[in-house]
Design goal:
The complex is a heterodimer of chains A (about 800) and B (about 270). Chain A has about 800 residues and is of the alpha+beta class. Among the domains of chain A are: about 180 residues, Aldehyde Oxidoreductase, domain 4 (2-Layer Sandwich), CATH 3.30.365.10; about 325 residues, Aldehyde oxidase/xanthine dehydrogenase, molybdopterin binding domain (Aldehyde Oxidoreductase, domain 4, 2-Layer Sandwich), CATH 3.30.365.10. Chain A has 19 helices and 31 strands. A seven-stranded mixed sheet of chain A has the order 3-7-1-14-11-12-13. In chain A, a hairpin with a 5-residue loop joins strand 15 and strand 16. In chain A, helix 9 crosses helix 10 and helix 9 runs parallel beside helix 18. The longest helix of chain A has 28 residues. Chain B has two domains: about 110 residues, Uridine Diphospho-n-acetylenolpyruvylglucosamine Reductase, domain 3, CATH 3.30.465.10; about 90 residues, Enolase-like, domain 1 (2-Layer Sandwich). Chain B contains eleven helices and 14 strands. In chain B, the strands form four sheets. Chain B has a five-stranded antiparallel sheet. In chain B, a hairpin with a 6-residue loop joins strand 11 and strand 12. The radius of gyration of chain B is 18 Å and the shape is globular. The chains are: A alpha+beta (about 800), B alpha+beta (about 270). The interface between A and B is medium-sized, with 29 and 24 residues. Chain B: Its EC number is 1.2.7.4. Chain B: One of its GO terms (molecular function) is anaerobic carbon-monoxide dehydrogenase activity. Chain B: Pfam families: FAD_binding_5. Chain B: InterPro entries: Diverse_Substr_Oxidored (IPR051312), FAD-bd_PCMH (IPR016166), FAD-bd_PCMH-like_sf (IPR036318), FAD-bd_PCMH_sub1 (IPR016167), FAD-bd_PCMH_sub2 (IPR016169), Mopterin_DH_FAD-bd (IPR002346).
């Protein structure tokens, strides 16, 4: 490209090749792939102490006494030592929501296995663990509430004793639902259950707290997705002015939601660092994560779908339970998941009548935290299994039933039965393309022919839409401790004409250091290599609620564009002066100010402003080349990306083994800032979805003891379990966002349990098997096959 | 979690290592792929860990009458890579490359696997089917036992206090020998939920079958000709061994045994 024309054209190529829509290689990989990232585990400060937490060994018990040997005085701390520290409160504005107070160290009672009871500090983690062994906690064991359905019932031992029942919130909605749907010719009822999971990011949680005397600030280095929110929550708990706290997220090795909260351990370390005036570090290990942070995905549904003979849905009735664990977590609260069940269950379908009631149940398990996909993985599983059940009842192809019920493009923008504003898209087309890519007819032919190895082939589909970047108008109604508003970005042209953009959200795998530099390139024509994206530090970035809800491409992307546009105006004024041209005659492009006769580069503009101000007129705009600007989409109820997943499996009925033979995704994320990065997000999410579908499950015994404490027992999919996922993109721009981009961060994790579950059921339909519990492990498959055989032989005997 | 404090000892000679172990408060460590995690979880708390992975006696490979003696500290990877000779037509490499993950195979050892005696591990079942014998040294001198006599139960062996495995002898098999090996794992590299190894060497009239991944020692049938010819007999064998109580597990075991027998025809020969 360098051979082409003059400088302007060559610079213009930068925008074409590295701006929005280009698959630019990830800038952050220069350090991450070389092992040169800096994570909490890499950090160490002089005089640092390490924390180990003595955690509850029981799911539900009163603490009768804690025996701490005298020599541990000043090294071991209990709740009473932290007098003045407030409990973590995640209230909501929902009228009947019951508030739980979460103490940073257990107070009076323990409510789940793994709850921190005593914090012990020593020079090393190993020593701190040694000291923990010298401490004895006397408990009076109480009945554990392990199963959410029983926990919600009258007579269950109360977890928060001032509550009348173990329920945080009941959410309900009813639209157009009357008894006439009960005359529908097709009525199918199913019970669906999804198991409790851990999010298992590669890097666990961790933090280091220290008081920085040079700025009189408590500094918390922490592995978080939302430094500004942690700062607010911490200030509240510690009773400090927010200005007295700085929160920094260094490199963060995956979050998925587990790092989107204020963690009791963060409060403890911060408190201890102030108390002892020493740096205090805690690093979550894998066992702590599995035991104390099995905190997501556990749903139960009883649903009835009503349809006509053509498989057209007439109504849906559901009762759902979400196991929300022991406490309401800051800031998302215990109700987000359950309320999302109510509003998202109808999915991408045009449903005429709907009734749903959801119980957010309190249980003696770790408190629920929204995990990639949040409630949508559960609702998509439940809804999509129902669609296939309707198809079987109607004796139609599940593909066809979906086509008949999906919202059509001519209905867009569409307001769903739960009031969701679908922005734009062609849902049926995504399904058509998946049908073609997976070669539907060929799979059906292969199924008919049978397999020589005795396995059975199955084909499954799932379609979802994913609300992302939902803003003020959605969140203010919740009344939770944070409401996302206008997203800000700081932009600063540096003295050598390179660019810094500073954002308050945080990149921990989303590639924002690359994609947001591409946004700057798109607006200013500056090479992304000359752009630094600064994030994750409250001292250096404007306020933001952080990275969650598939919001950063839309919100931070929009904010970077706004700030760069504003900066372009400032650059233009200086450039116009240097060009001796009127302001309206110049434009900013290709990292320069272009006038009627000639141009000046950003480098010259910056050099003039910073290094040779004597060359500027006295009445020059004093605001300079450093600013903060804000952004909000024209409609802030969220973007709706969507996808159709299609999956072919081979199931061995005797062993229960499931092999994914093909996996196809047709996705519409609107305009993709960086298609390669989007593919990466989809692959990663799909791997997690496969985990939900087939592998991951934290089981508990009847006393609430978790049955997995290592990765030998809690199975995560690995490279060997990942199929060669084939992705195709549609690009329907969102009319509401800066570039037409939509949030896509979670979608990969939403549909796989549904698509794979439907494929397994399709494979085993001939045996009379229909599974509705995830993960669909080999044991569950074998048990279902065995049960179906016994049922059919009982029927044979009876007839 | 971090391991509790322990002393670490690495000696150059076998006599010194066995002397250090004779006191009873020490544990031998070879590849550390099982003991390592157990130390970190504080499930194993020896006062001293004696590293035997570099003892020359445990690293040797020697021809013996009728077979090959492998030092106990040879790694799974060395078998996988063909870095050591194989007295069978490729069976050892085939077993080794299915053990856990390459990172585990790089360090984990054949002797360590036998000493740990996890019923779901590969070597105990595969070596039992292959008719291997374990060589031991301890305060009372040296001795050797058949694998099925060495393993007494789940995580339970005939090792006396202070005794260690020095090696394992794998008998030579004819070029016509066939080996069916099948395991069912939840995912690649995980411990098996069911496994079966079958050896047929018609030249020497050997028909051996071993069923692993039970909650006890391997079920070894030394004269398995009848079962191999009529796999339906397996149902009775599993019932007699108390492995049929759970219908879903029974279904899996039966299928895995049948597949292992069926594999004799298809994958019994070297590739």
């Amino acid at each position: 490209m360098g051979a082409l024309g003059h400088d302007g054209e060559r610079a213009g190529d930068v925008k074409a090749h590295k701006g929005v829509g280009a698959s630019v290689r990830r800038k952050e990989d220069a350090r991450l792939l070389a092992g040169r990232g800096r994570f909490i585990g890499d950090m160490r400060f002089p005089g640092q102490l390490e924390a180990a937490f003595l955690r509850s060994s029981l799911a539900h018990a009163r603490i009768k006494a804690i025996h701490i040997p005298a020599h541990l005085h000043g090294r071991a701390f209990v709740h009473a030592d932290m007098a003045g520290v407030k409990d973590i409160l995640a209230k909501t504005g929902l009228p009947s929501f019951r508030v739980s107070a979460q103490p940073s160290l257990a107070s009076g009672k323990v409510r789940f296995v793994g709850e921190p009871v005593v914090m012990v500090l020593a020079e090393t983690r190993a020593l701190a663990e040694d000291l923990c062994e010298e401490i004895e906690v006397e408990y009076e064991e109480l009945p554990a509430n392990v199963d959410m359905l029983r926990s919600a019932k009258e007579g269950a031992a109360l977890i928060h004793e001032d509550w009348p029942e173990n329920v945080f919130l009941v959410s309900a909605t009813e639209k157009n639902f009357d008894d006439s749907v009960k005359n529908a010719p097709i009525q199918v009822t199913r019970e669906v259950r999804t198991s409790r999971q851990c999010m298992a990011p590669l890097e666990g949680k961790g933090c280091i707290a220290l008081f920085d005397r040079t700025v009189e600030q408590l500094t918390l280095w922490t592995s978080t997705q939302m430094p500004h929110i942690v700062r607010s929550g911490l200030a509240e708990c510690l009773g400090l002015d927010t200005r007295k706290i700085r929160v920094v997220a260094p490199d963060v090795g995956g979050g998925f939601g587990w790092k989107g909260l204020l963690q009791p351990e963060e409060v403890c370390c911060a408190w201890a660092s102030l108390k002892l005036d020493r740096p205090v570090k805690w690093l979550e290990d894998r066992r702590e994560h599995l035991v104390a942070a099995a905190n997501c995905r556990e749903h139960h549904y009883v649903m009835t779908a009503y349809a006509d003979e053509d498989g057209r849905l007439l109504g849906l009735e559901a009762q759902a339970h979400v196991d929300a664990g022991a406490y309401s977590v800051y800031p998302f609260s215990a109700c987000l998941e359950g309320a999302q069940v109510v509003s998202n269950l109808p999915g991408p379908y045009n449903l005429p009548a709907y009734r749903c009631r959801t119980y957010s149940v309190c249980s003696n398990k770790p408190p629920i935290v929204p995990y990639r996909g949040v409630a949508r993985t559960g609702v998509c599983t439940a809804m999509e299994l129902m669609i296939d059940a309707v198809a079987r009842a109607a004796e139609l192809e599940p593909y066809e039933v979906r086509q008949r019920n999906l919202v059509r493009p001519d209905q867009m923008p569409f307001t769903s039965i739960t009031g969701k504003d679908f922005d734009m898209g062609d849902y049926p087309e995504s399904l058509r393309r998946a049908f073609a890519m997976v070669d539907h007819e060929n799979v059906r032919a292969r199924q008919k022919a049978g397999e020589s190895d005795g396995r059975r082939i199955g084909l499954g589909y799932a379609v979802y839409c994913e609300q992302g970047a939902h803003g003020t108008s959605v969140y203010h109604g919740w009344g939770i401790p944070m409401v996302p508003g206008i997203e800000s970005c700081g932009a600063r042209l540096t003295p050598d004409g390179t660019l810094e953009v500073r954002i308050g959200s945080q990149s921990h795998g989303q590639s924002m250091e690359t994609t947001l530099a591409q946004v700057a390139c798109e607006v200013l024509g500056i090479d992304p290599e000359l752009v630094n994206v600064v994030h994750g530090d409250t001292a250096m970035t404007p306020y933001s609620t952080g990275t969650w809800g598939s919001r950063s491409a839309v919100m931070a992307g929009g904010a970077v564009a706004s700030a760069c546009e504003r900066l372009a105006g400032r650059i233009a004024r200086i450039g116009a002066h240097l060009l001796q041209a009127p302001l309206e005659a110049v434009s900013v492009r290709d990292a320069q100010v272009v006038g009627p006769q000639g141009s000046v580069s950003f480098k010259e503009v910056a050099a003039t402003w910073y290094l040779a101000p004597q060359n500027l007129p006295a009445d020059i705009d004093p605001d300079g080349l450093d600013l903060v600007a804000g952004y909000r989409p024209t409609v802030d109820t969220g973007t709706f990306s969507y996808a159709a997943h299609a999956c072919v499996v081979a199931v061995a009925p005797e062993t229960g083994e499931v092999e994914i033979l093909d996996y196809v995704i047709v996705e519409d994320g609107g305009v993709l800032l960086n298609p390669m990065v989007v593919d990466g997000q989809i692959y990663g999410g799909t791997a997690q979805g496969i985990g939900t579908a087939l592998y991951e499950e934290m089981a508990y015994d009847e006393h609430g003891q978790p049955l997995a404490s290592t990765l030998a027992d809690y199975l995560l999919p690995g490279a060997g379990e990942m199929p060669d996922v084939r992705i195709a993109h549609m690009e329907t721009p969102s009319p509401n966002t800066r570039f037409g981009q939509k949030g896509i961060g979670e979608g990969g994790a939403i549909a796989p349990p549904a698509a794979i579950g439907n494929a397994i059921n399709d494979a085993l339909a001939g045996l009379g098997v229909e599974m509705t519990v995830s993960p669909m492990t080999p044991r569950r498959v074998r048990e279902a096959v065995e049960a179906a055989r016994q049922k059919s032989s009982a029927q044979r005997l009876a007839s | 979690m971090k391991a509790a404090r322990f002393d670490y000892l690495r000696l150059d000679d076998l006599a010194g290592a066995t002397a250090a172990l004779a006191e009873g408060r020490a544990r031998p460590m070879s590849g550390g792929q099982s003991l390592g995690p157990m130390l970190n979880l504080r499930l194993a708390r020896p006062e001293c860990v004696v590293d035997i992975s570099r003892l020359p006696d445990l690293r040797r490979v020697e021809a013996r009458p009728g077979g090959i003696l492998y030092g106990a500290a040879l790694t799974h990877a060395e078998f996988e890579d063909g870095a050591v000779p194989d007295p069978t037509p490729g069976f050892l490499a085939r077993v080794a490359r299915g053990i856990a993950y390459r990172a585990v195979r790089n360090r984990g050892t054949i002797g360590g696997s036998l000493a740990h005696a996890d019923p779901a591990a590969d070597w105990p079942t595969a070596l039992a089917a292959l008719g291997a014998r374990v060589h031991l040294v301890g305060p009372a001198g040296t001795r050797e036992l058949a694998v099925e006599a060495f393993i007494l139960g789940a995580f339970e062996t005939a090792l006396a206090p202070g005794e260690i495995i020095t090696g394992v002898v794998v008998p030579r098999r004819s070029a016509q020998a066939r080996f069916g090996y099948r395991k069912s794992c939840r995912k690649v590299g995980e411990f098996a939920e069911a496994m079966c190894a079958v050896l047929v060497d018609r030249q020497s009239k050997v028909h051996r079958l071993a069923i692993g991944a039970t909650e006890a020692r391997q079920l070894v049938i030394a004269e398995a000709g009848a079962a191999i010819d009529s796999p339906e007999i397996i149902d009775d064998i599993l019932r007699a061994a108390g492995l049929a109580a759970d219908p879903a597990a029974f279904r899996l075991r039966r299928e895995v045994v049948r597949q292992a027998i069926a594999a004799l025809a298809t994958e019994g020969q070297p590739a």
